[in-house]
Amino acid sequence: MNHTQTIRAGSAADRERADTLYALAKMSLKSAGIDQWQGIYPNGDDFMLDVRENRAIVMEQDGVVCGIAAAYIGHEPTYDRILDGQWLTDYQVYGIIHRIAVDPCARNAGIASSIVAYLQGLCRKDSIRSMRCDTHPDNKIMQHTLEKNGYQKCGIIIVEDGTERFAYEKIL
User: Fold this and answer.
1) DSSP state letters, 90-148
2) Looking at the whole model, is its pTM more than 0.85?
3) Which of 50, 89, 112, 150 could tie 70 with a disulfide, CB 3.0–4.6 Å?
4) Is residue 83 pLDDT above 90, yes or no?
């Protein structure tokens, strides 16, 4: 069955759905034994901050919001220091993806990959030549998603709460 997918900027009207998607992602990570997103973060407030900063992305499938992310072009301070490796580029501005959450009912429908492709398009349009992302060392699903979309593991970064994340980059 073919599905109609659309990506658009997130809005305040999507807050409740974003909160639900983050809650579902937290449950999924917990059931997989992954100690990621097991506190308050992320939630609808984080999504609203992304809306205000024009980085909230919403993926709809057949008119229903089934995926969200923060996707933008800029500089991520936590990426300034990388351990056990190095970035592929030394660019100070690049595409960044954070907080991808996909409804379990829509898994394996290419939602996360579509969000990655959407940001690639924005980057290319603005002559940005690289994209970066990070994920929890135990989050094999996201690692697989990044790698199948051409990202290379570059090393380890330390996020604000002091925990390690695998750092990925893709040259466009």
Assistant:
1) --SSEEEEEEEEE-GGGTTSSHHHHHHHHHHHHHHHTT--EEEEEE-TT-HHHHHHHHH
2) yes
3) 50
4) yes
